[in-house]
Amino acid sequence: MKKTQTKAFSNLVASLILLAFEAWAYFQTLGFKIVKKAAVQPATFPQIMCIGMMIFTVILLIQSILKLKKADPDDPMMEASASINIIKNKGVQAAAFVIVLCIAYAALFEVLGYVLVSTLIAAVIMWLIGKRDVKQIVLVSILVPLLMWFVFYKLLTVNIPMGVLTPLKNLVDMI
Amino acid sequence: MNWGLLFESYGAVFFDVQVLLMTLLGAAGGVLLGAIPGMTATMGVALLIPFSFGMDLIPSIGLLLGIYCGGMYGGSISAILIHAPGTPAAAATLLDGYPMCQKGQAGRALSIAMFSSFCGGIIGALVMTFLSPLIADVAMEFTSAEMLMLAVFGLSVIVAISGQSIAKGLISAFFGMLLCTIGMDPTYSAKRYTFGVKPLYSGLAFIPVLIGLFAVAEIIAGVERTINGEEKQESSNEKINEVLPDLKTILQIWPQIISGGLIGTFIGAIPGAGGDIAVFVSYGFNKSFSKYPEKWGTGIPQGVASTESANNGCSGGAMIPLLSLGVPGDAVTAIILGAFIMKGIQPGPTMYRDQLDTVYCVFAALMLANLAMLIVGCAGVRFFAKIVSIEKKILYPIILVISLLGAFSINKNVFDVGVCVVFGIIGWLMNKFEFPLSPVLLALILGPMCEQNFVRFMDLNGGNFGAIVGHPIAIGFLVVAVGTVLFSIYNQGKINKREAAAKKAAKANEQ
Amino acid sequence: MKKLLALAVALVLVMSLATVASAAEYPTKGISVICPWGAGGGTDACLRAFCLALEKQLGVTLTVDNLTGAGGVIGHEAIADADADGYTFGMVTFELSAYLAQEMSDYTYENYDPLCRVNIDAAAITVNTEWANANGITDVATFVEYAKAHPGEVMMGGSSSGSVWHIAGGYLMNATGIDIKMITYANGAADAVKAAAQGEIQGVTVSLAEAKSFIGNGLTVLGVMDTARNTAFPDAPTCQEQGFDIVYATQRGLALPLGVDEEIVAKLEAACAAAIEDPDFVTFMNNNGQTIAYQTAEEYTAYLAQSAIDVPEAMKAVDLL
Known about the structure:
By secondary structure, chain A is mostly helical.
């Protein structure tokens, strides 16, 4: 197996990304408000956390470099790493698609309303993962969000955005 | 202890039809609310407070305690079945509960969770009945210094739940602690990492992050597995003959139940520390002292028992400072305190002196609430266990839309839906590259407690950390914390060695 | 299919007709009431009880909607941004006066059409009994004297940072010229009260209701920052009767978004005036230790204008600005 496909290598990459993130997070703390007379500044605690994270990231980095050098085939770290190859791996493609769907879901939640976006996302995901029984897809994806909304709205008095389906809410209110 | 009055009060509570009915109703509602991610016992209690106005004190307390105890157990149902803890206090239950479910033992896991919850609850209620004033005195010793070190002790458990790589576990933990600092700082209201985004001013809401990291991440991973053909449908043919665990299982898990119940009761009794902390402490403690720590996390009954007994023990514990000091132990008891005051009763030392009958009635009501939870749980186990036999291709989208609704409804804020999705992605990536998720969670729970008490302690002592020497309990916690870390590191080394040996043996067998 | 479509169109038309009702018939449907704070808290309890009383007056259901987050900013802004049709209003609280100064929100009382003030709870100077006895502190005068002799040494708790009780400490400092150190308890007043009883801090500047469980049992009230004694605590003296003109309280009231039809506003004002005297509501507030302090829309607007000036002043004293 190529060294670049091992867990040790993915750890190496992850620690480099993390180091960049930690440096950014630390840099941000420098802009926090400074309070005169304060025993502990608002920036202190996040700074300690950044430094703590850095220390262990560096340890992980060194560990993975050593393991890559040694290349002991029995080491669990030299096994194949999980894939995020979006070009070759169909599963990763599907996962990425679901992520995009979820982001769209959050963005459209208020405009379209809970019931409608949920119906759409549920139906699309069911189709995506190989459900081909159209009757079941339609039934489940419409009834579940509708039922959840009804339970939350009527029994738990949680007001959930209905977006374009607001007339439905007015109808339920009238009954 | 006034035994005559105690028995009288128990009689008055257990043979009152209205109280029985209200408690059962509360428990049923609590179990259902707890099982829905994003709906917590706190919300249930708050929603039902207006309905309890018209009732007498004891039936309304029965109702509220029913929800409280039911909700504590209910959270474990979704943790076990769909990898989404229904309440923060059920977050540690999924460590072993979900693997059990994947092994086709969903019904068994549920019945163990229920039985342990019941026993933990009873332990809590017993301790509360007999040791309340004593424990309340200890709880009054807890100032900022003790709370800080209690948080540090809680954090020391992280090493035990880190899994193979301790470095990765600690990176996760520090990441979680860093996430806690988002929002306005607790002392000077300085904005940190808010980037002008208003919903971030009060920090990340805990429940959406929790649902994202576990439920949404699991669904993304589930879709990936399904497409790659690695998904297997959990066997639905598990026979559930008895709704309670069999004698053999009970004999296996009783040490975890007892220790979990006691840990839960004690941590619950400290105002400001609740079930979410207790479950991790109990899990870490029981794992460390187990003969086979390597099996923890792979789906063993002991894991479920240790956490579920702890969170229900908390309900008894949290009532102790409420009744004897008038200080609520957690969010739910804060609302129950309101219910008392509404009826013109001020819990506290005077209540023990002037209204001992009421105090005893509350003890009895808590006992009854745990019993009601058991009855409701027994009735529900078969039904809940059926959920896993729903086809995965239908189940995943359903869980997704329910989870995201849960994330929304905690603050009724669309921003939280986005937070939930973002943490779904983070959780999926962390799982893929074997960064453990539970340390993030524990850090999120303990981070604010840690920072607030640290800053306050420094403020009180003019920035001199050495003043901690004057707090023997705090020093005690610190010593135990250091001991836990060292012992866990030693333990993890042992686990890794054993696993490597087992792998070698398996390889040798293959050849 | 065509029939179904026609039916659907008809249904939508009927429903949209039903929603367009004139102000004269107001209210024709349920009203949503925004609470910027979480379910189970003091504001939530007060608002829910008041809504029950309002329901009797208006004859429709009032649903309390807890829109929380960002220290109440989210909920407060949602009230101001709501449709001005009279079917959404909400409860504004003390914190509204502090948002602009803290750069948390651009909204002030001027973005609202205040309906009425419902309740105020006065802050009180409450100290640890043991500490007070050891230092000969018996009333506000001796407390101020001690604090002047020991600048920066007296530590008082006041709930979470930027909260009403935290700022009360700043107000106390400005009014008496003393220098005390305010310690924050992010989980709320209950923690601060407990810490004062434990002796971790010397006292608290929270309301009497918050400190109730320890008053006379570890804590002593020196002076209430109110114009009259609290009926639930007749033994607790006010600061005014001791010669210190310190009046400071948290407040809660109802407010509409700007631009609601005048006829509707008048109807709501009348309903509020009647609901405030509802016997169930009065009993509830008394049992809950919250003081009913009704003000009409006009008085309440003037009150809010004054606190928009006072509050930032007090915040400077506790290092919040």
